[in-house]
Amino acid sequence: GQADIGVIGMGTMGANLALNIAEKGFKVAVQNRTPAKAFALKDDNPELADNILPAETLEDFVKSLNTPRRVIFMVPAGQPVDDEMDKIRPLLEDGDVMIDAGNADFNDTVRRAKTVEGTGLKFIGMGVSGGELGARHGPSIMVGGDKDTYPLVEPVLTKIAARFHDAPCVAWLGTDGAGHFVKTIHNGIEYADMQMIAEIYGVMRDGLKLEPAKMAAIFRDWNSRELSSYLIEITAVNLDETDPQTGKPMVEVIIDEAGQKGTGRWAVIEAQKLGVGATTLEAAVAARGLSSRREEREHAAGLYAGVEAGQSQFFADEAGFSELESALVTAKIIAYAQGYAAMAAASDENGWDLPLGTIAEIWRAGCIIRSHFLDDIAKAYDKGQKVVNILQAPDFVGRVAKGQSALRRVVAKAALAGIPVPALSAALAYFDDYRRARGTANLTQAQRDLFGAHTFRRFDADGAVHHKWPAV
Ligand code: 6PG
After folding, report:
1. CATH number for the domain that contains residue 463
2. Could you list the residue ranges that cross the membrane (predicted)?
């Protein structure tokens, strides 16, 4: 064979990844269930044609690869990955590497890694973020698998990944499902980021009655400071766009029902399993779910039409905008702290030893949540000291202490005006709970002991005890 690496699946992501690989000077074999698509990739990209080797059959594809063979699957997550693996395995030899680059459930990746163990074949599960453009020009790549398998794919991945200054946004993060787990949390954070931006948009629309073009200007302004990020940048573009058909702002002709493919939900489910409440992420997933029940919401709006919320106390002036900005920054720190806490817990649970600082580093470019802020997180982990939680890292303590009052005011004003801000509220509630040395679980324990003799522990003695409560 003569190809350095192969890609199976010529959907948008697979085709763009293959072009990226070809452009970086590697020869890439390409294959697709309908072979015409693989040949079309070569024909449609004459400048890269020398590096694109389309194959008619899986056998031809395998033959065209250098050994050890490196095969990237870019097919829909779930059964299609297992199907492709089953088809190709008999054609591969000892030392060959299968790489699942889709948005896999990390539990599947752990399972697939096990099925390959001891067979001589190798398996890598890697998260690829950055959408279509990222795949084409430089995604952020989160790799999981055996540490000694990584060098087999590292030269290609390092070349095709996004760059933050000179550093490629790719790293080996841990064994088996580590890469896909981190990608899942990335998506959960992506949901939270997007939801919090949408909530601020809701305040601007319903509380301040601003026109989208004005909102766009505000988001553009924010993009020059702490919030500077891809998602804020695209928000300004979204809000500035005019619908060519009606001449209305584009956002106003778009139905308010959010889609979701499941990765954000996985992040929340996994966090729950680990006993880490990623409540801001959870609020974002729940908000997408409720958004899709539009008819039901419209009916409820009618039922409660007479219910008076208070007057909006939001102000459309510099101080008012700056309060919203500060609230969003603060809630964002809290959301990331939750995502990071889930990764820290998963790392312990799965024995991954996830490099949390490195994860922030490879998220600084290429991926959907790329931002200046991630550089701050990278720096917080870079200082050599152990970071128990982002909310305890010195730089962030100062920022949250300063920003919390703005978050508090925005959440309170939104509540009074009847404007839902579920993710911002969740962030605030979590923060207040997190920094409360003495909580209220003592009462929960008392109740559990009363109705189920579940026992509790006392401040003034060791061990679990049961109290004889009065009969009810
Ligand atoms: C990325 C994204 C991507 C995801 C889309 C859509 O990192 O490039 O996370 O992987 O598929 O953002 O996700 P939803 O359809 O669930 O919104």
Report:
1. 1.20.5.320
2. none
- Does the annotation list 45 as a binding residue? no
In the reported structure, the alpha carbon of residue 367 is separated from the centroid of ligand 1 by a whole-number distance in angstroms of 10
- Contact (CB, 8 A) for 142 and 74: no
DSSP 156: H
ipTM: 0.96
395 Cβ partners below 8 Å, 6+ apart? Answer: 376, 379, 380
Question: Per residue in 256-297, pLDDT tens?
Answer: 999 999 999 999 999 999 999 899 999 999 999 999 999 999
Amino acid at 193: D
Rounded Cα–Cα distance for residues 14 and 32 (Å): 10
Smallest CA separation from ligand 1 atom 7, residue: 129
| pLDDT band, residue 307 (cuts 50/70/90) | confident
Both 423 and 448 in one domain: the answer is no
Burial of 401 (0-12, 13-18, 19+ CB in 10 A): exposed
What pTM value is reported for the model? Answer: 0.96
What CATH number does residue 302 fall under? Answer: 1.10.1040.10
**Whether residue 367 has its Cβ less than 6 Å from ligand 1:** yes
Assess whether 264 and 362 both reside in one domain: yes
Nearest CA to ligand 1 atom 1: 129
Beta bridge partners of 98: 71, 123
pLDDT in tens, 167-216: 999 999 999 999 999 999 999 999 999 999 999 999 999 999 999 999 99
Same domain, 288 and 402: yes
Pocket test residue of 20, 170, 187, 257 for ligand 1, highest count of atoms within 8 A of CB: 187
Q: Which of 358 and 277 is assigned the larger pLDDT?
A: 358
180 marked as part of a ligand binding site: no
Residue 109 to residue 179: CA distance in whole angstroms: 9
| CA atoms of 19 and 471, how far apart (whole Å) | 73
- To test the ligand 1 pocket, which listed residue (128, 184, 261, 370) has its Cβ within 8 A of the most ligand atoms? 261
For the chain, how many residues are written? 472
Catalytic residues: 183, 190
Q: Does residue 139 sit in the same domain as residue 209?
A: no
pLDDT tens digits, one per residue of 18-33? 999 999 999 999 999 9
Looking at the structure of the chain, the number of domains it has is 3
Question: What is the span of the domain harbouring residue 142?
Answer: 5-176
